Amino acid sequence: MIRVVLPAHLRNLAKANGEVTVEVAGKATIGSVLDALEATYPMLQGTIRDHVSKQRRPFVRFFACAEDLSHDSADAPLPDAIASGTEPFLIVGAIAGG
Amino acid sequence: MANKTNGVRVLVGTRKGAFILTSDGKRKKWEVSGPHFAGWEIYHLKGSPVDPNRLYASQSSGWFGQLIQRSSDGGKTWEPVDNKFVYDGVPGTHQWYDGTPHPWEFKRVWHIEPSLTDPDTVYAGIEDAALFRSTDGGKSWGELSGLRGHGSGPRWQPGAGGMCLHTILLDPSVPGRIFIAISAAGAFRSDDAGATWRPINQGLRSEHIPDPTAEVGHCVHRLAMHPSRPGVLFMQKHWDVMRSDNAGDSWREVSGNLPTDFGFVIDVHAHEPETIYVVPIKSDSEHFPLDGKLRVYRSRTGGNDWEPLTKGLPQSDCYVNVLRDAMAVDSLDSCGIYFGTTGGQVYASADAGDNWAPIVRDLPPVLSVEVQSLS
C-alpha cells in the first residue's frame, strides 16, 4: 500500500478526505504510482501529468522523504519508505503567482 | 414572439470559480449559488437549449490543467467528464508572436457550445485554436480538424490573450452550418457540419497586420447572430464593429457614431434582430471604458446609429473591462441583457438596456456570462 497526499484542489476533485492509498503491482516508481492513482481516480487523469506524453505538469512537484523527486525518471524506484507505506508520496502544487 | 418563461438562470464563469444566479420572471431579486469549483478558472459554462438542466463547464488551472464538468440538474451537482483534447494527427505549427513557427499546444477550453438539438452533443473551442466535438455528453472529444487543416493554419497567430477559438455559432436553419472565430486568425464557416471550412473575412480591415485585408490574421473578438436571421452576423473586431448580411461572405463596418469601436462583447436583442449591443472599450492598450464611464451602446438599426445606455451603470471612475464571452440576453418579454466585468460585477437590465442594476457585485473577475430562460 502506498500513501499519496494530493493537493487540496485535486483532493476535492477526487472527493477524497486526507491521504489516499493505492496498490502498485511490482516496482514502486513515480510512473507506477501515478498509473495506480489515475486508475483509482480517473478524474485525475491529465491534472498531474499530460495525457499523452506523461510529462509532469510544470507546476506540479513530487516530494518524498524530504526530497524533491520532481525531476527523477518516472521509472526510477521510489524510496523504500514510500514503497512500504511508512512515508507518504507528496504531490504538490508549486507556489506560483501571488 | 417572446417565449413563455417564468424564470432565468445566469451562469457566470470567473477567475476563481463559477456562480449561478437565479431569479423569477421579474428579475428583481437574485439568489447566488457558488462558488462552484472554487479556486479554478471557469472560462465558460453553458446549458443545452433542449435540456436546460444539462450544463457544461470549462474548468482550468495553471497548475492542474483542463477539466470539463457536466451537470444534469441545472448546476446543483457536477461530474467531471473527459478532459482529453488531443489534436488530430500531427499538429504542425502556427505562427508565434514573433512570426516564427510554433507547435500547436493545447492550453485550455475557452468556449463550450451545446448542440441546438441534442444535449449529448457539444462543441468546445480551445487554445491553441481548434474545434472539438463530443457526441456522448462529454465522455470523449474529437477534433474537427478540417478547420486547422484547410490551409491557412500555419499562418494563424495568437492575439494578446492567446490563440483561442472563442466563438461558436450554430446555424438553426441551415443544417451543418457552423461559424467560429479565432483571435487572431479571423472568422470561419463550415457548411458541412465541421468537416471543411473557409475563412470569411472579406471586408475586414486590420491595420496591425502586414496586409490589412488579408484572408486570415484578423483579431475577431466576438460574433453574434439572431436565430431568426442566421445569415446576418455581427462582429466586434479588435477595432471596428462589423456586419455581414450574407453569412460572412462579406462584411461592412457599422461602428458609426460609437465613441470608440474597440471592445470585446457584442450581442443581439432576443426579439429584435436589428437591435444590437456593444460595450466600447477605450483602446487595445487601455482595456477600460472611455472616460471612466461604463456605457453599453445600443443600435436599433443593426449598427451605425448608436445610443449610450447609462442608467444604473457607473458614470465616473470606472476602469473595468468586459471580456468577450461576458454578455448574454434572455428571451423574456421584455428582453433582459446581462454582462459581467473584470471588477466582479454582473449588471442586468430587464428592459432591453434602458435601466441597469448590478445583480451581484463582488465576484472574482468575470470571464463569461450566459443566461437560460426557464419555463
Topology:
The complex is a heterodimer of chains A (98) and B (375).
Chain A: E1 2-5, H1 8-13, E2 20-22, H2 30-40, E3 60-64, E4 67-68, H3 80-83, E5 89-93
Parallel strand pairs in A: 1-5
Antiparallel strand pairs in A: 1-2, 3-4, 3-5
Chain B: E1 7-14, E2 17-24, E3 31-36, E4 41-47, E5 55-61, E6 65-71, E7 79-81, E8 93-95, E9 101-103, E10 108-114, E11 122-127, E12 130-134, E13 142-143, E14 164-170, E15 178-183, E16 186-190, E17 198-199, E18 220-225, E19 233-237, E20 241-244, E21 252-253, E22 262-268, E23 276-281, E24 296-299, E25 307-309, E26 327-329, E27 337-340, E28 346-349, E29 357-360, E30 366-374
How can the largest sheet of chain A be summarized?
5 strands, mixed
Fold-level CATH name of chain B: Methylamine Dehydrogenase, Chain H
Amount of helix of chain A = 10-25%
Poorly predicted spans of chain B: none
The total of beta strands of chain B comes to: 30
Biggest interface in this structure? A-B, 18 and 13 residues
Give, in spatial order, the strands making up the sheet with the most strands of chain B: 3-2-1-30
CATH H-tier superfamily of chain B? YVTN repeat-like/Quinoprotein amine dehydrogenase
- Count of domain modules of chain A: 1
Shape descriptor of chain B reads globular
